[in-house]
Amino acid sequence: KIWTHEEGDVLSFKVEMQVKIPSHLAFSLLSDFTFRQQWDKHFLTCEVLQAVNEDEKIYYVTSPPMTGHKPRDFVILVSQRQPCKPSEPYIVAVKSVTLTSMPPSPEYCRSEILCAGFQIYSDSNSSCTVCYFNQVTSGVMPYLAANLTGSSKSIEDTALECMKFLE
After folding, report:
1. Region 111-138: what's the mean pLDDT?
2. pLDDT reading at 111 higher than 60
3. Residue 146, domain CATH
4. Is 67 a residue whose pLDDT tops 50?
5. What is the C-alpha separation between 116 and 96, in angstroms, rounded?
6. Segment 117-127 mean pLDDT
7. Alpha-carbon distance 6 to 90, whole Å?
8. Overall domain count for the chain
9. 28 or 42: whose pLDDT is higher?
10. What distance in Å separates the CA atoms of residue 121 and residue 162, rounded to the nearest whole number?
11. Cα 24 to Cα 57, 126, 152, distances in angstroms
12. CA atoms within 13 A on the CB side of 151
């Protein structure tokens, strides 16, 4: 299932996926962003720049160029949290950060992730519900242009690839 909400120049969307693996395994796979290239075609490269602590890492991500645009790059902080109670979800939160050791490069268009991530709810011992959230600014819109015209093919394809990867 896919939901969208547009306000000003920000598009928010939520994708909900039912996956046939335990929630702790989905959390482990989705919180390590170096796996993301295996299922998300928007991730060309992904490297850990800094392990802030056990639950937080800073990654450098590059995305392939879209027609008429330079390739994009991102410096993101990925925070992971385990549930405090069984009814609560696992959380993987993502947002862009500035790192003096990674200034913008002329070959890339530095882009920003305002707020994104996953919530992973346990449905049973062998299945879970994965919710992906993203708030997208006009800087990332070229990647979602098809979705804004009413076709959710790109988001849907990425969600299907994510499900295949997890299962």
Report:
1. 90
2. yes
3. 3.30.530.20
4. yes
5. 10
6. 94
7. 26
8. 1
9. 28
10. 16
11. 19, 10, 29
12. 6
Chain position carrying tokens 């994965």: 130
Report residue 60 as tokens. Answer: 């450098």
Q: Which two tokens stand for residue 14?
A: 């939520």
In total, the chain counts a number of residues equal to: 167
Alpha helix ranges (H) inside 41-152: 141-148
Per-residue tokens: 33: 């962003």
Tokens 């998300």 belong to residue: 40
Structure tokens at 15: 């994708």
Boundaries of domain holding 118 = 2-166
Q: Please give the Cα distance from 4 to 112 (Å, whole number).
A: 19
User: Among all chains, which residue has been given the structure tokens 């959390």?
Assistant: 27
Q: How far is CA 143 from CA 41, 68, 79, 86, 101, in A?
A: 11, 12, 24, 36, 27
